[in-house]
């Protein structure tokens, strides 16, 4: 099973996402990061150890202190996506801002922009790995 990375500055959201992912059965390994910088540091370590099983799915909050979701996406796309090219990102943000949804469409790595609570059933329906069919 593939690991999944959850990036969110809200510890309760991280706890709920981790629990839902494990209940869904799509993974048995959930890595968490409290902000975009922590996630970028994680990828920097992964890049130094080629062949490591890396997350093919990232759940990303947009509004975070330090390095927010957009900054993470920009740096990840530039520095790490070539090495981790099977990565798919789902933005999970409760803000419904049409500009952000449109901005999300400009990132090929984003497969969905979810503005509601995620469910285990939602994760079970994902076509992993690769997720060729974009939802956005």
TrEMBL record:
Keyword set includes Phosphoprotein: yes
UniProt-listed PROSITE patterns: RESPONSE_REGULATORY
Pfam families linked: Response_reg
Keyword set, alphabetical order: Phosphoprotein
Ranges for domain Response regulatory: 3-136
Residues found modified as 4-aspartylphosphate: 61
GO biological process: phosphorelay signal transduction system
Statement: the UniProt record of this protein carries the keyword Phosphoprotein: yes
Listed name of the protein: Response regulator receiver domain-containing protein
